[in-house]
## 1
Amino acid sequence: MPETPADPGGSVLPFTPIRNTVYAPDELFAGFDPDDPDSYAATMDFAAYRWFVATGRSTPTDPYPAMMRALHDSSLTLDVGRLIAGERVVGIMGGHQLPRTSDEYRAVAELGRDLARRGMLVLSGGGPGAMEAAHLGAALSRHPQAELDSAISTLGAAPTMPRIQGIVAPDGRPDERLVRAAHDWMAPAWTMSRAIVDPAPSLSIPTWHYGHEPTTPFATRIAKLFQNSIREDGLLTVATQGIVFTAGSAGTLQEVFQDAEQNFYAPTADDFSPMIFLGRDYWTRVLPVASLVDTLFATAEPVVAQERTRRILVTDDIDEAVAHLEAFTPARSRLARVQGPRHPSVS
């Protein structure tokens, strides 16, 4: 088990603060060994989380770690803009506790696969549950149904993400028992992700704010950030082709209303990105926000109010969801950019 960081004040950084590219799984999880239960703690990803916790989590009091976080997140955000230029980006949002053995997990995986097969870039928050399922489906979109079935069956050996919120103490010390629980959850996904031949590209934007939730290795590009507010705004700003909201809890609801806010103030009809609520019973009865969002848009400027019946869909049908997304030409994301100057001394 790696030792506690010698400098919890943050002068020794476990990451490069200025970089030209987002992460690949092999970089973020270098050192992970499916057969070594302690190896989860040896990864750069976990070292960065320990540093994040030891330097104050989301509210650092020392200006140095605060500046290093800002440089890092700005660098990755710039590369996200390059990656999405010219892409039809669809966000898939949903609960992190969705079991791998559930029908809903399979449905999200098939949704991610079908979107990728139609040339759309699948985007998620990069965590477990629905987010993992979306990237699994995208990664296997060039493969037959039998391979997706086999993958879901294999992952089902570790069906539910363990509750490991206390995996790192405030001073950066890891809890060995919880590290091993995280390893056991991660191991089948890591092994499988490395074995997929020619995975379709997908993009995730996770955050060390939720560093206790293992980041999925099925995304081929990982823009992991320190500041969750930047991450949440970025997810919604990037997904101009639309967002599919699958069943989730407080975090997913936050994304629903952040997306609604962006659409409510859309300057043109093209800037109103489609909102799809996948799971009619969930979004109309369990958490009945679909009707609330529609009522909200009815009070918006005419350009938004008139578009709401075209842009919002509540459905149980994956094919209907995909067809709904394909019917629109997205506006250009304000983050999208052509390749600009690259810093010569960084990756």
## 2
Amino acid sequence: MARIAVMGAGSWGTAFALVLADAGNEVCVWARREEVASAINERHENTEYLPGIALPELVTATTDPAVALADREVVVLAVPSQQLRANLTSWGPLCGDGTILVSLMKGVELGTHQRMSEVIADVTGATPDRIAVLTGPNLAREIADREPAAAVIACTDLGVAERLQKLCHTPSFRPYTNTDVVGCELGGTTKNVIGLAVGVCVGLGYGDNSKASVITRGLAETARLGAAMGADPMTFLGLAGLGDLVATCSSPLSRNRTFGEKLGQGMSVEQVTAQTRQVAEGVKSCQSVAELARLHDVEMPIVEAVARLVDGTLSPADLVREMIARETKHERH
């Protein structure tokens, strides 16, 4: 049994805390709001984000970061990606020198274009062997319902990845290991943007041909960027790439697909944001992913179009028309 902190009491942070507890670990969840922490401690339920899910008694909660982080050998970071730097600046000094830091976040930081593992290293000074990423087709509600699922734990140190693998392997959750941190993070980040584009197609009333086309070409865009940044091409054919992309683009449980669907139905970004309680990471990261692609001289037309849709310079219908009207070429290009 390990003592683990999960910093973030949203749906995915809470669901992963449940997984860790099912695997026999003592888990303390940091919650921003007292009412969320109290519900977890008193009712063993996150009534705000995962109502109806009974949490194991090994899961407790606090609003005090110092309490959550005290004597924890593993710290799981589960806050919105654009809030990581600010939070970690105050949390970092509370972590032990040997603490393993695990990112559940899927985003690229605005302005710096850093992946989440790079932000962690930048803020804390942690070496690569102390930083890991967990990603894959992991819709929080299904994980919390203990439906069978798989994930990838990536760390440049395979031994660390294997240690984390043991800490979250349960009868319903099967983690695989990988050392390609770059590829795993890019797959998780870019799929959110592609999920928005698929949602737009759904909102416009288009069928499976359109969705499959966007998914496939979106995967090609992700692989091109990954190749330019030194990722292993095989990563994008696995759980962190194709697996996560299919889950996000296919499920109504996906925040990004749902957000895109509402945009396709004619709502503005501001209107959808106002009625959405949880963050759709693709809305925040689409611009930074587009900028990252330009920095590496990689063509990503779907990502570029979604970025223009989010900033209000392109309509949903025009997004689709632009994709179809682009110059024809060999599929490999």
